[in-house]
Design a protein that fits this description.
The protein has 388 residues and is of the alpha/beta class. The protein contains 14 helices and eleven strands. The protein has a nine-stranded mixed sheet with strand order 3-2-4-7-1-8-11-10-9, sandwiched between helices. A two-stranded antiparallel sheet has the order 5-6. The chain is globular. The structure holds coenzyme A.
């Protein structure tokens, strides 16, 4: 297998983007990444685009061909493939792009992700998202993602003593980081009291424990490391790219305070990269709800199982902590356009490893990790990147 690098990144602002169409978002992120990499359109061999439910959010399927057209590359007739794995669509698109380059099949690959979620009303968005749970055994009976993650929160609180305040501290931290990110949907600070006083969505999760409904797109350009040097000296090597899967339904899992697919993906990624959790300088994890970040930092081995709430309270994951987590603001504050999220996480880690994260820069960061989850843990993707 060849060594693979990220040589370019680009993303749109995230938020409620009434003024921009889906195709404009795809074009903006893609063009920014192409310019950042310093490649020409003719250099591109293939495209993989993450999109969770474009058909139901905006009535648009066949997103691969659309992306090729908006990039103006139709005359090249290169393969452009849409990838779907719920909220992990972007992470799986990255994994597919990595495999394509590592295998020697393609040299320059564009990986993208996009979703336009705010064109439907809130209840419909919840219903569309719930199609990534088990429709027959979960969502048909009324389960929603806030509801499923609320079950995880209750279980974690009961078995490990995690408190509502500790959950809220995840949101407070991520809103602080988001306030430093010009592309974030929410750039305002919040307090623990704000979280606890916000409306209940699915007890014990309040509105401010949830990631929002978001429009946005992100892209990254991959190339073999030896070819990458032709284009840039800012080479970020992908040391590991691992996808793991589990049951679709949450109730069929072996445990409820962990996502076994994420544990499996992380273990294999550490092996592939030859690093330990303590070697990671900065991480972007899938905080679709505050409990999800607490479970993620445990599943990734940053802290022991059950200690994620306490670690958050003690500032371990803060910008100036031992292992800064979600420096971008995470899904919570940066926003969560589901198909784009996995690629947006890569954008943040690449910025951190290049030293370009401005006010949210983690000093001396050389190894970073992304953790992207689909649904309640049916799919998990972990990438480990290093500045070389
Ligand atoms: N965090 C912070 N603020 C939020 C927010 C969030 N998650 N969601 C909405 N807001 C703000 C809005 O900006 C708005 O503020 P304003 O009054 O100052 O304009 C206000 O809260 C009300 O917004 P609205 O759009 O009416 O909220 P809603 O009640 O329709 O939706 C949620 C709130 C939490 C239900 C919705 O964001 C949601 O479903 N989130 C979860 C998404 C999800 O499940 N993703 C998949 C994960 S697996």
């Amino acid at each position: 297998m060849r060594e693979v690098a990220v040589i370019g990144i680009g993303m749109t602002e995230f938020g409620e983007l009434w003024q921009k169409s889906f195709r404009e978002l795809v074009a903006e992120a893609g063009v920014k990444a192409i310019l950042d990499a310093g490649i020409e359109g003719e250099d591109i061999d293939a495209m993989y685009i993450g999109g969770m439910s474009t058909g139901r959010f905006i009535g648009q399927e066949h997103v691969g061909s659309l992306a090729l057209e908006v990039a103006g590359l139709e005359d090249l007739h290169i393969p452009a493939t849409r990838v779907e794995a719920a909220c992990a669509s972007g992470g799986v698109a990255m994994h597919q792009g990595y495999i394509a380059v590592a295998s020697g099949m393609y040299d320059i690959v564009v990986v993208g992700g996009a979703e336009k979620m705010t064109d439907v009303v809130g209840g419909e968005a919840t219903n569309i998202l719930a199609s990534a749970a088990d429709r027959e055994w979960e969502s048909f009976f009324g389960a929603t993602f806030p509801g499923l993650y609320a079950l995880m929160a209750r279980y974690h609180m009961h078995h490990h003593g995690t408190t509502q305040e500790q959950l809220a501290m995840v949101a407070v931290k991520n809103h602080h980081n988001g306030s430093l990110n010009p592309k974030a949907q929410f750039r305002r600070e919040i307090s623990v009291e704000d979280v606890l006083n916000s409306p209940i969505v699915a007890e014990p999760l309040h509105l401010l424990d949830c990631s929002p409904i978001t429009d946005g797109a992100a892209a990254a350009i991959l190339a073999p490391v030896d070819i990458a040097r032709k284009y840039t000296d800012k080479i970020i090597k992908i040391k590991a790219s691992v996808q793991a899967c589990d049951t679709l339904s949450f109730h069929s899992r072996s445990r409820f305070d962990s996502l076994p697919a994420a544990v499996h993906a992380a273990k294999k990624a550490y092996e592939m990269a030859g690093v330990k959790p303590s070697d990671i300088d900065v991480a972007e994890v899938h905080d679709c709800f505050t409990i999800a970040e607490i479970i993620a930092i445990e599943d990734l081995g940053f802290v022991e199982k059950g200690k994620g709430g306490k670690a958050t309270e003690e500032g371990l994951t803060a910008l100036d902590g031992q292992i800064p987590v979600n420096t971008s603001g995470g899904l919570k504050a940066k926003g969560h356009p589901v198909g784009a999220t996995g690629v947006a996480q890569i954008n943040e880690i690449v910025m951190q490893l290049r030293g370009e994260a401005d006010k949210r820069q983690v000093k001396g960061a050389t190894i970073g990790l992304t953790h992207n989850v689909g649904g309640s843990g049916g799919t998990a993707v972990v990438h480990i990147l290093e500045a070389i």
